[in-house]
From TrEMBL:
It is an enzyme of class 3 (hydrolase). InterPro entries: Acylphosphatase, Acylphosphatase-like_dom, Acylphosphatase-like_dom_sf, Acylphosphatase_CS. This is Acylphosphatase-2. SUPFAM superfamilies: Acylphosphatase/BLUF domain-like. The gene is ACYP2. Pfam families: Acylphosphatase. Gene3D superfamilies: 3.30.70.100. Keywords: Hydrolase. GO terms for molecular function: acylphosphatase activity.
Length: 75
């Protein structure tokens, strides 16, 4: 919920999901500076009840068109 709110404030689209391993996975899309702001928030702030041990961002690439129209939580 906090991640979804922050993504909307920053102005990125995509999704996030808690995994059965106690980690979080997802996808973030938007202008590079906004994606970087979201990555910083995920790495350093996160949800109030979260404990951030490390963050790993992978499959980063430039895209010509956004694949999502908003940001949401997947279950």
């Amino acid at each position: 919920m906090y991640t979804e709110d922050e993504a909307r404030k920053i102005g990125v689209v995509g999704w996030v999901k808690n995994t059965s391993k106690g980690t979080v996975t997802g996808q973030v899309q938007g202008p590079e500076e906004k994606v970087n702001s979201m990555k910083s928030w995920l790495s350093n702030v996160g949800s109030p009840s979260s404990r951030i041990d490390r963050t790993t961002f992978s499959n980063e690439k430039t895209i010509s068109k956004l694949e999502y129209s908003n940001f949401n939580i997947r279950y």
